């Protein structure tokens, strides 16, 4: 009985080690957005994050400066939900991170206590410090330069 008990423990420990090794080797599958669309990508690893047409607002503030509110994002994971008092009141939020490089990017609004803030529920904040523009921005940026020179 003692031998089978020890053998059972050894098997459990071996299974834990094997699972830890598998977790390290786990592949991350990326979603690639259409390259003909203007997109935003992770500034750290260039994984696609969102299409420009999913942008709701550029008028948000993150912990590291300006932030954008998106309707939907890709290649992003969510941490646990927690209560936070933000500039616009109390919310239940979950930090979001890049699935590819694991950098924290911003947060997801899970629940808004104020009626006027309900539109944020299920939406995502990504801080500008963690994203870059990709694909198709040249025309818009060139137009902006021409207008500023005249």
TrEMBL record:
Coiled coil: none
A GO molecular function held by the record: metal ion binding
Naturally occurring in which organism (per UniProt): Pristionchus mayeri
InterPro entries: Yippee, Yippee/Mis18/Cereblon, Yippee_fam
Origin: domain of life: Eukaryota
Domain Yippee, residue spans: 38-135
Keywords (A to Z) from UniProt: Metal-binding, Zinc
Name by which UniProt lists this protein: Protein yippee-like
Pfam family, one: Yippee-Mis18
Family: Belongs to the yippee family.
């Amino acid at each position: 009985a003692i031998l089978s008990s020890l053998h059972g423990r050894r098997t459990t420990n071996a299974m834990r080690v094997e699972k830890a090794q598998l977790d390290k080797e786990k592949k991350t599958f990326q979603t690639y957005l259409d390259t003909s669309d203007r997109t935003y990508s992770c500034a750290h690893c260039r994984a696609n994050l969102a299409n420009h047409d999913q942008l709701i607002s550029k008028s948000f503030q993150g912990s590291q400066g300006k932030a954008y509110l998106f309707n939907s994002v890709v290649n992003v994971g969510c941490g646990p939900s927690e209560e936070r008092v933000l500039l616009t009141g109390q919310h239940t939020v979950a930090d979001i991170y890049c699935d590819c490089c694991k950098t924290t990017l911003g947060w997801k609004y899970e629940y808004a206590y104020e009626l006027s803030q309900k539109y944020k529920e299920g939406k995502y904040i990504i801080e500008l410090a963690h994203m870059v523009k990709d694909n198709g921005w040249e025309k818009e940026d060139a137009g902006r330069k021409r207008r500023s020179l005249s």
